[in-house]
Design goal:
The complex is a heterodimer of chains A (476) and B (547).
Chain A: H1 8-12, H2 20-30, E1 36-37, H3 52-62, H4 72-75, H5 78-90, H6 105-119, E2 128-131, H7 134-145, E3 151-157, H8 162-169, E4 173-178, H9 189-201, E5 205-212, H10 224-237, E6 240-244, H11 261-268, H12 272-275, E7 278-283, E8 297-302, H13 306-318, H14 324-334, H15 344-370, E9 375-376, E10 385-386, E11 389-390, H16 394-402, H17 407-419, E12 421-422, E13 424-425, E14 438-441, H18 449-467
Parallel strand pairs in A: 1-12, 3-4, 3-5, 5-6, 6-7
Antiparallel strand pairs in A: 2-8, 7-8, 9-11, 10-14, 13-14
Helix pairs in contact in A: 2-17, 3-5, 3-14, 6-14, 7-8, 10-11, 15-18, 16-17
Chain B: H1 2-18, H2 77-81, H3 89-103, E1 114-115, H4 130-140, H5 150-153, H6 156-167, H7 184-198, E2 207-210, H8 213-224, E3 230-236, H9 241-248, E4 252-257, H10 268-280, E5 284-291, H11 303-316, E6 319-323, H12 340-346, E7 356-361, E8 375-380, H13 384-396, H14 402-411, H15 422-448, E9 453-454, E10 463-464, E11 467-468, H16 472-480, H17 485-497, E12 499-500, E13 502-503, E14 514-519, H18 527-545
Helix pairs in contact in B: 4-6, 4-14, 7-14, 8-9, 16-17, 17-18
Classes of the chains: A alpha/beta (476), B alpha/beta (547).
Pfam families (chain A): Aminotran_1_2
Domain Aminotransferase class I/classII large (chain A): 79-454
Subcellular location (chain A): Peroxisome
């Protein structure tokens, strides 16, 4: 099998989060250099501890013979034991049996109840599919929507490159709409309209629109008004809206709390609430749970025709079932310990600690970047990332060209080699021409942050001094 | 936007330069910038430069003729085309019956649904291997390792193994995304297990841990298939993951028929014939799928047959996709499992000159851990530029679930003689495997006793695949009911007995022959009742439709 004969779509697809920078960082790590991996939203890898309660429950589900042991109460609290028994009773054979291809009905019911509590509108468990991580769900839905290269998907730029990679793999077209950096990465519906018109004039059939709320890498939280505009737009243009809401628990300001696309849609009433097709995604990987390695997620369908739902179910059934442990994590996440439960205090304390720390780190990082020469950084309103703009001097851009590298890749490689900080260049997410960024996470331990930001500042200011010339630098 | 894609392409070039490859291999031509100039380039979004731009501007109207965008009329046709009978129509009917049974017990001649449609052992009462679950629980909740009470509840070697595994995970963080191929230390263990099994070395860098074997199969299909001009040789009958995956990825399934009369044997001459026929139709055949032990057919290939297959692939330039998920399920003394890697290496084909992908899973064997979604593929004989693409695909999904990865390493390195858990582990393992062999034999004999039914023995795997010689009257009744004859039989069987099997048409069969696939998995105490009900049903079916 030769490289030449491989599927072109595979060759074209890119996923920078684990691309060139990450590979170089791994090489350096093997050579003994201390690397701070801030390339991916992977909280536990940066020292965040798993929440105790869910780990207790899943461990008991993993080894049900423990439940028969009279001494189990010495190692596990009673509510964890009860929850484990409950989840096991929902399965047809414990963690080791394939579940329903859509996920355990009992857990999907818990998810529906969570959505109803969150939004104030009922949700149907039959329209909720659990998946091995939210990414798998995104791929499944895009696979249904994209038929050929003339099918376009509206994707925000900058975007999380799962979207560009998947669209590429599926042979579709990515239709970008630019977020406005000078307006806190705001979304202007006029930009959307222009993108659509342009694409259509080229023979593209726009099928769906992706929003990431809170944004990745940009972190902005959409306002209710913005969401309404988007939903009206999707209604008018007959687009499926894919609402990536995996960071809904990561909110670091109080002006724009998270509001789900579904809630806004329902509030808009007829005809919108009955006609706009919406698929919403969530995960156990983010929030304050950070259980990336479990691979747990779900998508919820609204106004998708029953026959299409059947087809989506059919494709899900080929993969047999999502992993059962992660389904239990999902159940626990949407239905956590309540006040009065034995484990509640510890759970609340652990959760609060993580969220408050993230809020502080969002601020520390934003301020740290803004204190650096030629660096401008919007505040991380939500999610897990900081996406500073690096105003590279022409001298640096030239040096990059000579080294055969894209300018932000050049900068990030130098940053990596000098400081061990492994980031993802902005080109991996998309950005306006001539404007450069990098994405880092806000996940390193709080006590290490000052040192990391110092290290960055030292490198950056030195880099700028080295490459600055008389005729100024790249404009925003 | 043009710069976005330019930087993407540049990134790809840079990445490849770093890996010292000629750039001509990688510079897929950038689409020409034929879009009209825009009034305000900095603020106006540019349209994506995917392949379409080279086409002349097409003023076709927007495609939304229906008021709801994602309808059956305009869903991806590849999705519509693919099928997966294992969880198809019959199962849906069974689930409805099961629901109804809860409140309407008297309406049915049976009081439970027995799912014999799917290889899901633990849903039918098989217990997990205790040692494995002890290790997994300790890795899930690592603070247990600090408690003194733990030693009373867990075996010493499970505790030791958990420590050993956690030491290979940075920060002992089992909740973190791992390397996209899976945790290195676990891949080392798996490679050692492969070497112990085969007597030939395995490289941990060749291993890709996946959420079950199925995602790995999908990855390979995605890689190999660019259009319906690309074909994959598949056994008929086959496990319909292959036909579904090929359909989803827009390729062509090139069938080769297993010979029922010779225990589902594989004839190289038939392979050759199918290959040539496909090529004459303009299909580029890229790979050969072999399922060994077979599903649904249960045959275990003889070594000589395997050698012929390896040589055939080598001669014809085909990738060998070896589905070996049932490698631990062999029930007959005259057959043994040999991995295709071992066979290839024994023939002298090395790392560099034979393209082979071997799939393994934690779902089958004696462990039956379907719900954990653990598995791997071992990829050998590919050039590094191809392997990079495989890695890239794996990286888009970040990694497979960690618990499943750990389990895969346990399956490939179970307790050894002298270990604390060894004796109990062996007792569990042997108990399960001998019971499977027994159930396979009992069901096979029962099926062979039925009028018009012949059933090859299950040498391995978890299924029986009997052939039913349906009377003409039955076939006509099926036609009238607009159902395939084997599906007609299976539906009748379900409604009369509550037993769920999968019609042979879900797997493929020689046209004009009819089969169904039944698992050997219900617990031993249920087997007599199943045999009785099946026998009674079959008799009355034949009474009704006999010529």
């Amino acid at each position: 099998m030769e490289y030449e004969s491989l599927n072109e779509n595979v060759k074209k697809c890119q996923y920078a989060v684990r691309g060139e920078l990450y590979l170089r960082a791994s090489e350096l790590q093997k050579e003994g250099k201390k690397i701070i991996f801030t390339n991916v939203g992977n909280p536990h890898a940066m020292g965040q501890k798993p929440l105790t309660f869910p780990r207790q429950v899943v461990a008991l589900c993993q080894a049900p013979f423990l439940l028969d042991d009279p001494n189990v109460g010495m190692l596990f609290p009673a509510d964890a034991i009860a929850r484990a028994k409950h989840y096991l009773s929902l399965t047809s054979g414990g963690l080791g049996a394939y579940s329903d291809s859509r996920g355990l009905p009992g857990v999907r019911k818990e998810v529906a109840e969570f959505i109803e509590r969150r939004d104030g509108y009922p949700s149907d468990p039959e329209l909720i599919f659990l998946t091995d991580g939210a990414s798998k769900g995104v791929m499944q839905i895009l696979n249904c929507v994209i038929r050929n290269e003339r099918d376009g998907i509206l994707v925000p730029v900058p975007q999380y490159p799962l979207y560009s990679a998947t669209i590429s793999l599926l042979g579709g077209s990515l239709v970008p709409y630019y977020l406005e950096e000078s307006e806190n990465w705001g979304l202007d519906v006029n930009n959307l309209r222009q993108s659509v018109a342009q694409a259509r004039s080229q023979g593209i059939s726009i099928r769906a629109m992706v929003i990431i709320n809170p944004g990745n890498p940009t972190g902005q939280c959409l306002s209710e008004a913005n969401l309404r505009e988007i939903l009206e737009f999707c209604h008018k243009e007959k687009l499926v809206l894919l609402g990536d809401e995996v960071y809904q628990q990561n909110i670091y300001q109080d002006e724009r709390p998270f509001i789900s696309s579904r809630k806004v849609l329902m509030e808009m009433g007829s005809p919108f609430s009955k006609e706009v097709q919406l698929v919403s995604f969530h995960t156990v990987s983010k929030g304050y749970w950070g259980e990336c390695g479990q691979r747990g997620g779900y998508f919820e369908m609204t106004n998708i025709p029953p026959r299409s739902v059947e087809e989506i179910y059919k494709v899900a059934s080929i993969a047999l079932s999502p992993n059962v442990s992660a389904q239990i994590f999902m159940g626990l996440m949407v239905n956590p310990p309540k006040p009065g439960d034995i484990s509640y205090d510890q759970f609340a304390r652990e959760s609060k600690g993580i969220l408050e720390s993230l809020r502080r780190k969002a601020r520390i990082m934003t301020d740290g970047f803004n204190s650096c020469k030629n660096v401008v950084c919007n505040f991380t309103e939500g999610a897990m990332y900081s996406f500073p703009q690096i105003k590279l001097p022409p001298g640096a851009i030239q040096a990059a060209k000579q080294a055969g590298k894209v300018p932000d890749v050049f900068y990030c490689l130098k940053l990596l080699e000098a400081t061990g900080i492994s980031t993802v260049p902005g080109s991996g997410f998309g950005q306006k021409e001539g404007v450069f960024h990098l994405r880092t996470t806000i996940l390193p331990a709080e006590e290490e942050m000052p040192e990391i930001m110092d290290s960055f500042k030292k490198f950056n200011d030195g880099f700028m001094a080295q490459y600055e010339s008389n005729f100024g630098y790249s404009r925003m | 936007m043009r710069r976005f894609l330019a930087s993407q392409a540049k990134g790809l070039v840079d990445q490849t330069r770093r890996h010292h490859h000629k750039s001509r291999l990688f510079l897929s031509p950038l689409p020409s910038l034929s879009s009209p100039p825009l009034p305000n380039p900095a603020r106006s979004p540019l349209v994506s430069l995917s392949r379409f731009l080279s086409s002349t501007s097409d003023m076709s109207a927007s495609d939304s003729t229906s008021s709801l965008p994602v309808t059956l009329d305009n869903i991806n046709p590849k999705v519509l085309k693919c099928e997966y009978a294992v969880r198809g129509e019959i199962v849906n009917i069974a689930q409805k019956l099961q629901e109804d049974l809860k409140t309407n017990k008297d309406a049915y001649p049976f009081d439970e649904i027995i799912y014999c449609n799917i290889g899901n052992p633990q849903s039918l009462g098989q217990l997990p291997i205790r040692f494995f679950r002890e290790v997994l629980a300790l890795c899930d909740h690592t603070s247990l390792l600090d408690e003194s009470e733990t030693h009373g509840l867990f075996s010493t070697d499970a505790i030791d193994r958990a420590w050993k595994i956690l030491d290979t995970i940075p920060g002992r963080a089992t909740g973190a995304y791992s390397h996209s191929q899976g945790i290195k230390g676990l891949r080392d263990t798996i490679a050692a297990g492969i070497e112990a099994r085969d007597g030939f070395p395995a490289d941990p860098n060749d291993i890709f841990l996946t959420d079950g074997a199925s995602p790995a199969v999908h990855m390979m299909m995605q890689l190999l298939l660019s259009s319906e001009k690309d074909g994959i040789l598949c056994p008929i009958p086959q496990y319909p993951l292959y036909s579904a995956s090929i359909a989803l990825h827009g390729g062509s399934l090139v069938p080769y028929y297993l010979d029922e009369a010779t225990g589902w044997g594989l004839e190289i001459s038939d392979l050759k014939k199918q290959l040539e026929e496909a090529r004459s139709k303009g299909i580029t055949v890229r790979a050969l799928v072999v399922i060994n032990p077979g599903n649904p057919t249960g045959q275990v290939l003889g070594e000589e047959n395997q050698r012929d297959i390896v040589n055939f692939c080598k001669q014809e330039g085909l990738v060998l996709l070896a589905d070996e998920v049932y490698q631990e399920n062999v029930y007959v003394p005259d057959k043994k499992f040999h991995s295709f890697k071992k066979v290839a290496r024994s023939l002298g084909h090395g790392e560099k000159d034979f393209a082979l992908v071997s799939f393994q899973s934690v779902s089958k064997g004696y462990y039956g851990e379907c719900g954990k979604r653990g598995g791997y593929m071992e990829v050998t004989g590919f050039t590094s530029d191809v392997r990079e693409q495989i890695y890239k695909m794996a990286s888009v999904n970040l990694c497979s679930n960690i618990s499943g990865q750990i389990l895969a390493s346990l399956v490939m390195s179970p307790p050894k003689p002298g270990d604390d858990s060894y004796d109990s582990y062996m007792a569990e393992r042997d108990g399960i495997l001998s019971s499977m062999a027994k159930r396979a034999k009992t069901l096979e004999e029962a099926l062979n006793n039925l009028e018009g039914l012949t059933c090859n023995r299950a040498e391995g795997a978890m299924y029986l695949f009997p052939q039913i010689k349906l009377p003409q009257k039955a076939i006509e009744a099926a036609e009238a009911a607009k159902t395939a004859p084997d599906a007609f039989y299976c539906k009748r069987l379900l409604n009369a007995t509550g037993i769920v099997v999968v019609p042979g048409s879900g797997f493929g069969q020689v046209p004009g022959t009819w089969h169904f696939r039944c698992t050997i998995l219900p617990q031993e105490d249920k087997i007599p009742a199943i045999v009785n009900r099946l026998t009674e049903f079959h008799k009355s079916f034949m009474d009704e439709f006999r010529e």
